[in-house]
Fold:
Amino acid sequence: MDNPFKKILHNEELPEVLKSRVLNDVAMIKLSIDMADLFVVKYPNTIIDLMGGGKAQDKKDDNN
Structure:
């Protein structure tokens, strides 16, 4: 697969198609990171808080 960025000259504008692909890829990566954060970090912490009666929150309050 050829690198499309090597085809761009320094004085030329980026083609709109390439610009939209890059922005879509960045948006997909950001969405993936947000989803991973939600299900790997926040969801288990919520379950622990619900099952433990708020013990995780008490520990956070003790540290502050």
About this structure: The mean pLDDT is 80. The CA atoms of residues 49 and 59 lie 11 Å apart. The chain has one domain: 16-63. Residues 16-63 form one domain.
